[in-house]
UniProtKB/TrEMBL annotation, chain A:
Gene3D superfamilies: Ribonuclease Z/Hydroxyacylglutathione hydrolase-like. This is Metallohydrolase. Residues 284-306 are annotated as: Disordered. The lineage of its organism: Bacteria, Pseudomonadati, Pseudomonadota, Alphaproteobacteria, Sphingomonadales.
From TrEMBL, chain B:
This is Uncharacterized protein. The lineage of its organism: Bacteria, Pseudomonadati, Pseudomonadota, Alphaproteobacteria, Sphingomonadales. Residues 595-719 form the JAB domain. Keywords: Hydrolase, Metal-binding, Metalloprotease, Protease, Zinc. Residues 351-405 form the THIF-type NAD/FAD binding fold domain. The keyword Plastid does not apply.
Amino acid sequence: MPAVTFFPIGNADTCFIELANGRRVLFDFADMHNPDDKDDKRCDLEKEIRDRLNGDKEIDVVAFTHLDTDHCNRAKEVFWLQHAEKYQSDDRIKIKTMWVPATAILEEGVKGQARTLRTEARYRFVEKGEGIRVFGRPDALDDFLKERGVDPAKRRNLISDAGTLCPEFNQAADGVEFFVLAPFADHCDDDTYKRNDTAIFMQATFKVDERLTRLILSADCPHEVIDDIVRVTRKHGNDERLMWDINNVPHHSSYLSLGPDKGDEKTEPVERLRWLYEEQGQDGGLLVSTSSPIPDNDDSDQPPHRQAANYYKGVASELGGQFLVTMQHPSQKSPKPLTIEIGSKGYSVKKLAGGSAAIIGGAAPRAG
Amino acid sequence: MENGGKPAPRSPRVVALIKYIEGSVDYPFARIAALDFSGDSDIVDLLIEPELVQDRAVAISDIEPVRLVFPVRVDGPPSVFSQRADFPLDLVHTNYEPSGDGRCLCIWEENWHDLSRNLTAQRLIERIRDWFSRTASGELHNPDQPLEPMILATSSTLVVPPGHPPTEWHGVVVEDDEDRLTAVLDARPRKNGCRPVPFAIFSLEVEPQVHGALHHRPRDLQRLHDLVGEMGRDLLGTLEAWLFEQLPQGDRVIVLLISIPKRRTADGEVEAWEHWAFSPTEKIESLAQRLGLVERDPDTGRFGRLLTKAPVENLSEIALYGWRVVQRLDHATARLYAGNPADRGVSLVGIGAGAIGSNVMLNTKHAGIGKWTVIDSDINLPHNLVRQIHPDAMTGFPKAETTALLLDTCLAEGGDTHIRANFLAPGAAVEAVREAVGAADLTVDFSASPSVLGAVSDNAEIARAASFFFGPDGRDLVVLAEDKARALRLDEIEAYYFLCAGTDPLLADHLASARTDMVRYANACQDLTRPLPPWQVQALSGIAAGRLLSLLEEEQAVALIWRLEAGSGAVTPMELNLRPVRRHEFDDFRVTVSEAVIETMRRLREQRAPNETGGVLLGSFDLSRRVLHVVAALPAPPDSRQSPTYFIRGAKHLKPLVEGIEARSAGSIVYVGEWHSHPDGAKVEPSDDDEVVFKHLETHLDPTGAPYVMAICGAPETWIRAGWHSWRVGEGAMRHG
């Protein structure tokens, strides 16, 4: 049965989806742990992903929702990149199709991981004309192609607009479909290219037997963008595309993804977001905060914010579901990847006890 | 027990439970809410976090508060109570007696003896979590599923008795079918419902004869007299005296019954009896007259005894009509007719008189196996009748007693007895059970209970033990039997059988319908009723009975499985290739290592030399008996690192492999530790690195309550160290043969 896994990597996002037919999708890859720090509870993401690939060296789709470090850290160390030989050693993981927002192609003045991934995305999009899907179609993208001598019409098949299904997957063959909710072209035409505003925002709908289980992946979008997503999606009569059983809440439980005011104890969301969470959440709905543990004070301005978390907890409680935090699952003392199986009775959070299962799941210490 | 002024837990299971929850390396999905050791029981309040589906048949919560109440004086099952005020009671199976502790949840379906065998602290928690999970998903109790009633705890013929002829014969039954009679004789008159038999029976026992000495059948009185004379008896002289006694009822038909004791050699023991029966054409009075003993008074017409014997007519003219004499069956004759090659009857103990037990015991009884002592504590309930040998009239009576009665009456030779007792807890019957198994040539466990199998294995009074049971879906028959010398004990054979169930492709679905955390065979008395057709029960029981007979003639241990295809009726036999074991008796527990494990490690070691190699060890364990059987050593996963000075065991493909074996063996075969090789010339004792490996095992497994083993295979010998929660660590070396 299909399974969705979130990882304890602090305030960062990675979501690994394995389908019943064996195909795999990775949303973001942010390996944040510090191997030199014994007290770092963030997982060794590269190892976790490799374990799940079980020896395979290719992932069907790797999506970079946007190119912030907390969504792509160490990607250039782990993946096999087509644009330069130095990224092509045997042990690297190949990406069959790369998904990026249009801004990841257009953005200028980027450095580090983002620059390498931008180069890879441009290479696939402009030079190769395959192995990539670009989300959003601002006019600037056509200009970008024309400047490089490529007829935009010949890249049209590589671009997905909001309000469409990604052609890489379909429910009949894969048991899942991915519906693009954002980015919109007008967000991407902003001169400043705010990454969080133009990130990929999706709904995945799994189908097991006749049961549909819906997952929303909302990256780091602020409340204004989500408000817009709800407005436009509803305008097109696509309320169903905003229903959710599992919701990866945006931006590591930042209050700014709910509304403008943090609130004393609980953030009150803007109206359209209230509708999204309270009306579109299904019975037993699960909210996942991909973040550090929820603090019990307001010492830090950085997310997660306990007031936002309190709102999500309230939503979970009303739905008879739960609110889980990746760095607190199953315990804050020893967080582990959060695996959610999708079945004919909806989702279930895997809760496997350790013992021998833990020993044979990994290598033994060196014996002499 | 006081610990720093604070009451400490008294139940070792509570000690283990706390250690698991507080010390588990991985999160146990259970937290301790409160502890109370001040009362009559040890009380542990827990917050349980079950794995739940989104769509729930019953509104189970992500966190369920429960109270576990452990008995402190005996090792009994903890009661599990929901502590949630709004727990949806009507939707789940609970024990409905309200108590101060809340509502008691029916977590356990099997008896405590079976359950306690491998109920580590981790498995206890997992059982409770699993109960909530399956209750939530609606898998625990299908409303349509019938629940079995709960059970507290299956020419003319003369027929003569077998063996030594009685001092007095009584005709008890006669059937007259168109002049052909069938008459049944017995040592005692039958009380009710039998017509009197109008015969006068003259019996004469001759001197013992060597087997095969009898030849022609006499057809007249003279020849019979001569023949009996050759056998050391005076027929006529004896007959005359008898005739005088019988004169008052002079119109009765005479049956002359000659009993011949037979023996193999001239000075051998009498082994069997042959009976010849004849009826002269004359009745009592006229025979007496023809023998010159009496004369009819012409006036009165009555016979009077002659003072002087009259001349005897030619005895050859007194014709004899022969009866076909058949003996009712004793064990020896039953063996003969059943084609049972055994030359003697044996004493057996049968534990469990349910579907397989009652049928196999009765079947082998028919084959003259000998005498059974039936041990069972249950009573017959109506649903039992479909599978067992008992008629409706025995419903409500004890299985042991009724089974012994049916065995005892199925042949003319009885001797079958019963002990109404639970073999695991015989109570007042403890001495009777001890005597019975001590006197038996073979003790057969038909109980379908792994814990009985374990207890039989451990019982030193038993001469030899076997276990017969059906697979969980009732289509496979399993026979496990020790060798005559008990070099291989039943539990060691069972461990290997579980390994085969987990690994042999032919047995891939053998235990498929067993729960993964619980082995429960088809005829377990507390089982849910499974539709198990009587023909299948009897077909497999028949095979089982046949194998039991041949088992008695064999020396070696066996593990055999038959699979019945219900559609075609085809039966496929399988024999498991048993290997000897090495036993290590440590202070508090026992570890056995199959010779196959040592051979595998040695072979892989040779293949990889000069590099070190290794892998994981698989085995089964019984927590209550403190026994661990190491049954398999797996080769190094492909991502392992193997060098002349070290070995790092990888993990590629390992988890699905081990978990697959565990699932196919119904949770019996599990990971128990690590092995690796040492090169030629190196000691087999652990290096500093190896101590880290053992510590790794201890860290992960000790809190769970499961045992763990590290083995090091060198050139001359293999060294092992085993550890087990709350008990000490044991070490030992095994020289290579």
